[in-house]
Design a protein that fits this description.
Largest sheet: 8 strands, mixed
Number of helices: 15
CATH architecture of the largest domain: 2-Layer Sandwich
Number of domains: 2
Oligomer: single chain
Structural class: alpha+beta
Distance between the termini: 54 Å
Mean pLDDT: 94
Number of strands: 16
Radius of gyration: 28 Å
Strand content: 15-25%
CATH superfamily of the largest domain: Bira Bifunctional Protein, Domain 2
Helix content: 25-40%
CATH class of the largest domain: Alpha Beta
Bound molecules: histidyl-adenosine monophosphate
Low-confidence stretches: none
């Protein structure tokens, strides 16, 4: 019986894992520069957390949730995203309060039962941030800037920043009414899902990807043209700040997000180097979510990057990482006694933080040297019966080819020499 990986998931093998490590390091570094602290939440939550926050008429809630019952019959769901869990954790642990800004970040796997294709998996990873406690448009600008800086630090170019505003609970009803008026004329020629969306949540029509719906969607009213004065002013300030910070961006009136909790600013970063799934990051403001989840009214804003998509760009751009050069010392041994001494010296080196390895498969000397070469070891120390007798052995610098006789007790000192 052979087992294969579940559809829509991927193993990250050692070579690629190095790229992941450098991406994770860059995220942690940039998030820390902006004073965000890490939070880790469980991979599953009560199903209701997601239905309430993401919206019951979204694709995610309707057809993409990994929902299951536990042994006590409780409905749980593997997290499809992390904004709602972070808000839940903040409320449960009193991390948000008046006159306080709480800035958090996370890195981890998310789960959506989508149709797998390039750039779209059922288990994928996000690195994201959430800032709670301020309605200030400067915070919206900070989030976009941080996102742009992250891609700059990763050396990723050709990223388009798209921003929009979806308004608030005051102006959204008006927008909804205008959409209903507009789509009433068109809905007959649209897809079955859009016919349903027309009844229950016409805003979701704008997120439809069906070919035959694109014509009507193109001519639909745009939220950004129907904002109330407060939302208009907020949006203008975000735009002004981004201009001032010389961020290149485009106001995209058609930008709609797949989650219902957004208010005011929404944004996406798109890459020209990916196929249809070109969004590498998405986010925005969600000023009503915390209250929706039972807390006090707390404005908030955040984003998440899709790590697989970023890794794809890094791979295309040949940002190959390699394990080579990580091992400082390789101890080649011949015979059991030499093997034991080699193991002892290896342990001492590792204890002192020197990356070191040896062969455990009884390989010939030639094969061991090949192995050291493949690992990119900086030095090889060669132990056999003669060496045991004299108490010293040759330390070979693999870069220069030079050899030096070093007594066993001096090996670590020698390796640490500048
Ligand atoms: P989202 O746009 O659903 O937003 O996801 C963010 C990013 O995750 C996307 O831009 C994409 O790169 C990646 N992504 C989404 N689904 C998949 C998939 N099936 N396979 C691979 N990558 C995927 C959110 O999840 C919000 N929670 C972001 C946010 C944070 N908004 C405010 N704070």
């Amino acid at each position: 019986m052979k087992y294969s990986i579940p559809r829509g998931t991927k193993d990250i093998l050692p070579d690629e894992a190095l790229l992941w490590q450098s991406l994770e390091e860059a995220c942690r570094r940039v998030f820390a520069i902006y004073n965000y602290n890490e939070i880790r939440t469980p991979v599953f939550e009560s199903t209701e957390l997601f239905t309430r926050s993401i919206g019951s008429t979204t694709d995610i809630v309707k057809k993409e949730m990994y929902e299951f019952k536990d042994r006590k019959g409780r409905s749980l769901t593997l997290r499809p995203e992390e904004t709602a869990p972070v808000a839940r954790a903040c409320l449960e642990n009193n991390l948000i309060g008046p006159d306080q800004i709480t800035k958090l970040y996370y890195i981890g796997p998310m789960f959506r039962y989508e149709r797998p294709q390039a750039g779209r998996q059922r288990q994928f990873h996000q690195a994201g941030v959430e800032a709670f406690g301020s309605p200030d448009p400067l915070l919206d600008a900070e989030i976009v800037l941080m996102n742009v800086q992250l891609f700059k630090e990763l050396g990723i170019k050709d990223i388009d920043v798209n921003i929009n505003s979806v308004g608030c609970e005051k102006c959204r009803p008006h927008f909804r009414k205008e959409l209903k008026k507009y789509f009433k004329e068109n809905v007959a020629k649209m897809c079955a899902d859009c016919k349903e969306r027309f009844e229950f949540n016409p805003l979701r029509i704008l997120d439809c990807k069906e070919g035959k719906c694109q014509g009507p969607i193109d001519g639909a009213p745009a939220s950004v043209d129907l904002l109330c004065p407060g939302c208009r002013d907020h949006f203008e300030q975000v735009v002004k700040m981004l201009d001032y910070q010389e961020v290149k961006f485009k106001v995209n009136k058609r930008l709609v997000r797949g989650l219902d909790y957004y208010t005011r600013t929404t944004f996406e970063l798109l890459s020209g180097k990916l196929g249809a799934q070109n969004a590498v990051s998405g986010g925005g403001r969600y000023d009503t979510l915390v209250q929706e989840l039972g807390g006090k009214a707390t404005p908030a804003v955040g984003f998440a990057i899709g790590m697989e998509r970023v890794i794809q760009i890094m791979t295309n751009d040949k940002c190959q990482m390699s394990n080579e050069g990580k091992i400082i010392l390789f101890i080649a041994t011949l015979g059991d006694e030499a093997g034991k001494l080699g193991f002892d010296l290896l342990s001492k080196a590792r204890e002192k933080g020197i990356a070191a390895d040896m062969d455990y498969a009884g390989k010939s000397l030639k094969a061991q040297l090949k192995m050291a070469d493949r690992l990119g070891a900086k030095y090889v120390y060669l132990l056999g019966a003669d060496e045991l007798a004299k108490g010293s052995a040759a330390l070979k610098d693999m870069g220069t080819g030079e050899q030096k006789e070093v007594v066993f007790d001096d090996l670590l000192k020698e390796l640490r020499r500048p």
